[in-house]
């Protein structure tokens, strides 16, 4: 058992303000090697929460639990509460869950299909065949992901012909097409150049009015630019969780302070 000897502070919210929260989430890889310790975090509706911390501190592990992406590789104990339901229970329909809690990965991973098909794929698989409705969702999703103007004349061209930044926004549009409430993003800008990163950040800021987002980032400037709340992870423990402002200007713990100073330095 690893002991982290420092005062910790974990912010909480009223139940009505929470989009999602975990209680004592622990993750065991290979059955026994514990990599995440009792994380209890609450995510406020219509905000962006940044997950920060060193490499291997458990940010991705935690994030992947939230829509059950760790099912095949780890044992996950504890609760993940979404609309009064513990979605960490065995009998949950994971496919339905992921429609509500979507995910965007570090590397843009569009399907090797047209831009349009990337967006309609899941909808068609769900039985949506109304062409007009599909066209409408394609436009809405691309607009929400701030990509529409750049691709509206080439919807039937391959998604792979887009730039990395455009592909990442397409992946966001694809995630939005099934109308999730929550978007999980694991270092979504790490493969992008500064201009594409800035566009992606603008997109995420705009999405805040309709979605709740949880985003892993290594980029402290990015966390301070776009997130309202920040959780600091260290060796699988959540050490501190507070408003981004407090974490960056007035951290309560030495570990947090050191990490933030080192990362900005
Ligand atoms: N599938 C896996 N099997 C076994 N151990 C794993 C697996 N995935 C992650 N781990 C371990 O869990 C710990 C946390 O890893 P995780 O990927 O969550 O860290 P991270 O904070 O996202 O790091 P990074 O910033 O490098 O992405 C690490 O010790 C890692 O080696
Ligand atoms: Mg990671």
- Proportion in β-strands: 25-35%
Shape: globular
Stretches where pLDDT is under 50 for at least 5 consecutive residues are none
Indicate the percent of residues in helices: 25-40%
The side-by-side strand order for the widest beta sheet comes to: 1-12-11-5-10-9-8
Bound molecules: adenosine-5'-triphosphate, magnesium ion
- SSE class: alpha/beta
Describe this structure in words.
There is one protein chain. This protein has one domain (9-264): Rossmann fold. 36% of the residues lie in helices and 26% in strands. It has helices at residues 59-66, 94-100, 115-125, 131-144, 148-151, 164-177, 194-207, 220-226, 244-249, 254-264; strands at 9-10, 18-29, 33-39, 42-44, 48-53, 74-82, 85-86, 101-104, 182-186, 212-216, 229-234, 237-243. The strands form two sheets. The chain has a seven-stranded mixed sheet, sandwiched between helices. Strands 2, 3, 4, 6 and 7 form a five-stranded antiparallel sheet that branches. α3 packs parallel to α6 and α4 crosses α6 (164-177). The protein is globular, with a radius of gyration of 19 Å. The mean pLDDT is 94.
Which keywords apply here?
265 residues, alpha/beta, Rossmann fold, 7-stranded mixed sheet, 5-stranded antiparallel sheet, 10 helices, 12 strands, 26% strand, globular, binds adenosine-5'-triphosphate, binds magnesium ion
